[in-house]
Amino acid sequence: MDEELELGTELEMEMEESTEQVRGSGTLYIVATPIGNSRDMSPRGKQILEEADLIAAEDTRRSMVLLNKLGIRNKLVSNHKFNEYGKAKHFIAQLQEGKSIAVITDAGTPCISDPGNELIKAAVEAGIRVVGVPGCCAAVNALAISGFDLSSFTFFGFFPRENAERRRLLEKLRRGDTRTFALYESPKRIMDLVDFFIDEQADVRLCLCNDMTKLHEMSFRGTPAEVKEQLLAKGNYDKGEYAIVLEVGKDYIFNKVEHAVSPEAMLVDAMVKGRSAKEAVAAVLADENNSYSKNELKAASLRLKKLFGGEA
Q1: What is the enclosing helix (H) or strand (E) of 155?
Q2: Digit-coded pLDDT (tens) for 117-146
Q3: Is 236 within 8 Å of 210 (Cβ atoms)?
Q4: How far is CA 63 from CA 24, 78, 122, 142, 148, in A?
Q5: 237-240-241 Cα angle (round to 5)
Q6: Model confidence, pTM
Q7: Residue 108 gets which letter from DSSP?
Q8: Average pLDDT for 99-109
Q9: What are phi and psi of 214, to 5 degrees?
Q10: Those residues with Cβ within 8 angstroms of residue 35's Cβ, 6 or more apart along the chain or in another chain
Q11: Could you report the per-residue pLDDT of 169-214, keeping only the tens digit for each?
């Protein structure tokens, strides 16, 4: 009984402290929200959203659904990736006037492959207090249920779309100091990504987490080929969000530094065959051994033009 009373007192003190912080002047709160199940919203997070002067949301329409469930209204303003830089100045002015602002994303923790960084940087530079309110994060949740070695891991955000950039990232994963990586991918591209690993004969094991915390949550585990079979068996695999945990096989890791051919060398080799610089860029991009992106090859083409002159 004494332990229960002590715990109750601690919770009351935490709630009072939270209330004082929200009512204080110029505090920026980074508030994690549920990634699927609204019951995962923390009591502290809910109270801060209730008492903040403004709530800066990635997508006001999606956030409105959660806030309506929490009974919170008339505080939403947009803070998506297309207006983040311009809005940061506006929010800083509001904070300097003594208002408190809570930043939320569509789901999970802000700034983890979501908007929020520009505002936080601006707040820190302006000497404004920034407070994190922890909670759900899809990448961390996927790592926790993956069963892979988590003594160290790296988060890479969304996997690249172009195969050249994918190959480059895969090479980077193979050269890393850790074997475990967390990534995100769109449901519309999930099968394309699995096929990429199969085509590359990548010695990796995957844990694909779909619709975490929701009613029909599923995990797909195994080699890329095994995971593909599981996705096909599911049928509507192109629905819901995916968080991916990837473990690189021990024998697949690069054990020594290997020097890649420079982009300039690859372009010159293509141009020797009578191609223009533009045609050479296209040819190198189509080369299955290429690991450079289109922008990197264009930059290399410009460097060659400055060095030797001529058409680019």
Answers
A1: strand 154-158
A2: 889 999 999 999 999 999 999 999 999 999
A3: no
A4: 25, 10, 24, 23, 33
A5: 110
A6: 0.72
A7: B
A8: 93
A9: -90, 175
A10: 107, 108, 136, 137, 138, 141, 212, 213, 241
A11: 999 899 888 999 999 999 999 999 999 999 999 999 999 999 999 9
Question: How far is Cα 304 from Cα 47, in angstroms, rounded to an integer?
Answer: 59
Helix residue ranges per DSSP H, the chain: 2-23, 43-51, 60-70, 84-96, 117-125, 138-146, 163-174, 190-199, 224-234, 263-271, 277-286, 294-308
Q: What is the amino acid identity at position 260?
A: A
**Structure tokens, 199:** 């085509």
Q: Which two three-digit tokens encode residue 12?
A: 């009351």
Contact assessment for residue 291 and residue 254, using Cβ atoms and an 8 Å cutoff: no
State the angle between helix axes of 43-51 and 2-23 in degrees (0 to 180), rounded to the nearest 10.
30
Measured N-to-C along each axis, helices 84-96 and 117-125 cross at an angle, to the nearest 10 degrees, of 40
Cα 218 to Cα 208: distance, rounded to the nearest angstrom: 8
DSSP letter string over 15-73?
Answer: HHHHHHHHHSSSEEEEE-B-SS-GGG--HHHHHHHHH-SEEEES-HHHHHHHHHHHT--
Nearest to 243 by CA among 144, 311, 106: 144
